[in-house]
From TrEMBL:
Keywords: Membrane, Transmembrane, Transmembrane helix. It comes from Gymnopilus junonius (Spectacular rustgill mushroom). GO terms for cellular component: membrane. Residues 42-404 form the DUF3533 domain. This is DUF3533 domain-containing protein. The keyword RNA-binding does not apply.
Length: 429
């Protein structure tokens, strides 16, 4: 015997009022369709977490996979220079690969060394300043109240090159290593006091000569002095990529709603897609650049007032580089485009948080990624790091060019399939 519920026709089922586990045919089909879409989708998300998220985790778990490059420059040539050089070279658990560089390569002394560090010659340079040993020995024989052990060693580095590497890795290592050298020098020089006839005079006039004979100063040549710049060199790049994706969705929706995808000729459709994207990114990159100005990001450090124009142009080309890649693939991937979006974001972010040269070699693809090159360009414009603008611009334009080619090729392939389906449908009717 059947119940009234089982006999109820499908087309008379009340809308918006069905329990999920109702056993009639229509609800069974609906549940089946629901789970056929939901479960494979969740499986794809799980695969994405394991396969794509692993890129970012893999970039962080073994940092530094390669050592920082470091120079030791001894302008002293005396006992202090020997102690510092030997201690650095023999330091355990070092994250810096030290190279002893002859002082005669720097005619203007420490000024030349500092300039080389700003130009990415090395990540850090330890300079043993000229006449350190002589000043110390003179202070023993003739106590000097103005003796300053911190004038012995100067460490040069540039935080703006990568603030994460500097703050998390390099600076703590330098401080720990130089503190050890400072203590070692103090203990080693203690023996000299027993042979000095001026111990009491030294203690009275210049006690720092005994307590702290050799110390150091860390000079941050290019400080990351604008916290708001974190947005422009890292986090903001993610936001801009997502906004570029919004443009792709809006443009695609507009073409679908207006039926231009089917009405326009192939040439007109490709021209529309490229022109609308380029113009949209031109406008939005200006808005984004003005946002940075509104929050007082100083763009005049390197190029004065022209810094804003350089910043705008690079952000425009960057938006085209990341946005046109999405624009070209949405025709092919359709509802799966979010999976490419997350892959696109993570593959870029993974090579931007820490310097590429410190990451495992597999991550050296980062030199060709849009995030890395825009971040490098902005650091030069905002902080005055080494000028790679030509290379950065070339890489970004290359991405734009490749995306234009792939967009055209994919659109041609899709158009041929659409024409074939249209003809088959017309033939059957």
């Amino acid at each position: 015997m059947t119940t009234p519920e089982q006999d109820e026709p499908e087309d008379t089922l009340e809308l918006f009022n069905q329990p999920f586990w109702k056993t009639n045919r229509e609800m069974t089909l609906a549940r089946t369709a629901y789970f056929k879409i939901l479960l494979p989708g969740l499986f794809m998300v799980a695969i994405t977490i394991l396969a794509i998220f692993s890129i970012f985790w893999g970039a962080l778990w073994k940092v530094p996979a390669h050592l920082f490059s470091g120079w030791i420059v001894d302008f002293d040539g005396g006992e202090v220079g020997q102690i510092v050089t030997q201690s650095l070279v023999q330091a355990p658990n070092a994250i810096v690969s030290w190279k002893v560089v002859p002082s005669n390569q720097f005619p203007q002394g420490a000024l030349d060394v500092a300039e080389e560090i700003k130009n990415d010659g090395a990540w850090v340079a330890i300079v043993i300043n000229e006449g350190v040993t002589a000043r110390y020995e003179n202070s023993l024989s003739s106590p000097n109240a103005s003796y300053n052990g911190a004038e012995a060693i100067t460490a040069y580095a540039a935080e703006a090159r990568n603030e994460n590497a500097y703050d998390i890795l390099l600076q703590p290592f330098l401080q720990g290593t130089l503190d050890t050298i400072q203590l070692k020098a103090a203990m080693q020089f203690t023996s000299k006091l027993f042979t000095s006839a001026n111990v009491s005079a030294i203690l009275e006039i210049s006690p720092q000569t005994i307590v702290n004979p050799v110390s150091y100063t860390i000079v941050n040549l290019l400080p990351f002095s604008q916290p708001v710049a974190i947005a422009a060199v890292f986090v903001g790049l993610i936001f801009v990529l997502i906004m570029s994706f919004f443009v792709v969705l809006i443009s695609n929706g507009a073409r679908e709603a207006s039926r231009l995808n089917r009405l326009l000729s192939f040439k007109s459709l490709v021209s529309l897609r490229l022109a609308s994207s380029v113009l949209a990114y031109f406008f939005l990159s200006l808005i984004y650049s003005l946002l940075n100005l509104a929050f007082h990001l100083d763009l005049s450090h390197t190029y004065g007032h022209a810094g804003f124009m350089a910043f705008w142009v690079f952000n425009w080309v960057y938006m085209m580089a990341v946005g046109l890649a999405l624009e070209s693939l949405i025709t092919l991937l359709r509802q799966f485009i979010p999976f490419f979006l997350i892959t696109w974001i993570i593959s870029n972010v993974s090579v931007t948080f820490f310097p590429v040269e410190l990451l495992p070699r597999i991550f050296h693809y980062g030199y060709a990624m849009p995030f890395y090159n825009l971040s490098s360009a902005v650091r030069h414009i905002v902080f005055g790091t080494k000028n790679h603008l030509g290379l950065n611009f070339g890489v970004l334009i290359s991405w734009v060019t490749v995306s234009c080619i792939t967009l055209t090729a994919i659109q041609w392939s899709v158009r041929q399939k659409d024409i074939k389906l249209f003809r088959e449908k017309s033939y059957t009717t």
